[in-house]
Structure formats: structure tokens, C-alpha cells
Amino acid sequence: MTHSLTPRSHVLGHVTLAGAGPGAVGHLTLAVAKALESADVVLHDKLVSDEVLALAGPQATLIETGKAGFGPAMAQEEISALIVAFAREGRNVLRLKSGDPGVFGRLGEELDALDQAGIAFTVLPGLTAASAAAASLGQSLTERGRNRELRLVTGHGAEGFAEADWAGLARPGAVAAIYMGKRAARFIQGRLMMHGASLSTPVTLVENASRPEERVLSGTLADLPALAARLDGPAVILWGLAPRAAVAAQPIEVAQ
């Protein structure tokens, strides 16, 4: 696919790599909202919500890169090439990703491409899905006396299911946010069991965190594959956390 705009000058443009948050427009930072207003080109992932994209200025060209889990996607090399090409045309380029670009967002690869091209950039963080998901449960990701560390883990890498420090995750009181773990749920369950995790350890899956269609499925490690099979959209697995009982307004479904 070829995208081109008439160059405005021979001066290199600027690239902003930003996080759109988990979906709800209210979770967008002011800095990212301003970047949307001023961008000439917005290269966005499929998971960036329409409400967020609606904040782009009338001058902006919106280009979907198609990255959404296991579906069709533009190759990372092509995305990086587009970012560089538009910047070389003197454009103000916004590379917009769901969540935070520095959390499993392949930010480093795009920064490497900009470094090699000698193009200036700014990185604007976004609210990551783990924070929004925990808030929906009425829970803290860290808590004195419970967990002194928090792990952000990916369930799936470029070559298949991803390994992790399963022994550490299996310890009582451990808390982790597992991204891209829905299809790896049975694998994750098996690895944790192999390393001594209790089948009664709480686990909660939050689908479409912060969006109107958000769903919360809660159970234990024993329920993990069955819970994951009930979800269709993007989800984060919160290992070691259950919804707080007082959060009655949320659409929480507890495994039977």
C-alpha cells in the first residue's frame, strides 16, 4: 500500500510516538490530545478507539496500520518505513498506539528507524491496560503486605507462546498483568501449575478495559482456559487479583 502527500518543504518533519490509552477517550492524556489536534499524519493501530481518533484535526490523514492481536497486520518494517517517509516530506507525524507505546508496543524498533534516518522524535506515554483493568476491579496493582513487585508479562511472542519466570509468578502473593495471553491461557495455566501455583489462586480477565463494552470475568487458576474461551476482544489477565466485592456497578461475571 502506498501513501504519499505533497512535500511542504525540504525540512525534516517531527515524529511523536504516543499512547492512546486502553480505549476510553477520558483516559487520553492532554499531551496526546494536543498531538492529535496538530498532526498532519496519524498512523494508528486498530485498537485505537474511534472516539480518540475523532480528536484529530481536519488537516490530518488517518492511516490504520492494522495491528490487533492475531489478525491481519501491516508488517512492522512497513510501518517504520511510512513513519520515516512522511517525516522526510516535512510532515508532523503521530504514531498512535493503544495503551502505552513502551509496553509491548515495539517502540524500540520504531525509534531505531528514526535514529537511523536522523529524524527528531518525542515519546508520549499512555495509560496501559493493566492500570485501567485493575481500576475496574477496585484493586491496587501493588499493596503493602501483599506484593512488593508487579510483573508485566506477554503471553505470546513473535515465535509463539512466551516463557516467563513461572517460579516467581507461582509464589503466593505474586501479582502480574499478562498481555496477549488469551490464546495462551492453557499454556499459562500449565506452566504455573508445573511450578507449584495453587489452583485456587485468583485470576481475573478484563476484556476491552475502560470501554463501554468492557467485560470482567473472575475465577481461579483452575478456571483460566474456560474464562479465556468466553472472550472475543482484547483482554488482559490479572494474575493474583480478584474484583473487590464493593465494585457492584461493574459487569463482573464469576466462574461457576
TrEMBL record:
<dbReference type="InterPro" id="IPR014777">
    <property type="entry name" value="4pyrrole_Mease_sub1"/>
</dbReference>
<dbReference type="Pfam" id="PF00590">
    <property type="entry name" value="TP_methylase"/>
</dbReference>
<dbReference type="GO" id="GO:0032259">
    <property type="term" value="P:methylation"/>
</dbReference>
<keyword id="KW-0808">Transferase</keyword>
<keyword id="KW-0949">S-adenosyl-L-methionine</keyword>
<dbReference type="InterPro" id="IPR014776">
    <property type="entry name" value="4pyrrole_Mease_sub2"/>
</dbReference>
<keyword id="KW-0627">Porphyrin biosynthesis</keyword>
<dbReference type="InterPro" id="IPR000878">
    <property type="entry name" value="4pyrrol_Mease"/>
</dbReference>
<dbReference type="InterPro" id="IPR003043">
    <property type="entry name" value="Uropor_MeTrfase_CS"/>
</dbReference>
<comment type="pathway">
    <text>Porphyrin-containing compound metabolism; siroheme biosynthesis; precorrin-2 from uroporphyrinogen III: step 1/1.</text>
</comment>
<dbReference type="GO" id="GO:0004851">
    <property type="term" value="F:uroporphyrin-III C-methyltransferase activity"/>
</dbReference>
<dbReference type="InterPro" id="IPR006366">
    <property type="entry name" value="CobA/CysG_C"/>
</dbReference>
<keyword id="KW-0489">Methyltransferase</keyword>
<feature type="domain" description="Tetrapyrrole methylase">
    <location>
        <begin position="15"/>
        <end position="224"/>
    </location>
</feature>
<protein>
    <recommendedName>
        <fullName>uroporphyrinogen-III C-methyltransferase</fullName>
        <ecNumber>2.1.1.107</ecNumber>
    </recommendedName>
</protein>
<dbReference type="InterPro" id="IPR035996">
    <property type="entry name" value="4pyrrol_Methylase_sf"/>
</dbReference>
<comment type="similarity">
    <text>Belongs to the precorrin methyltransferase family.</text>
</comment>
<dbReference type="InterPro" id="IPR050161">
    <property type="entry name" value="Siro_Cobalamin_biosynth"/>
</dbReference>
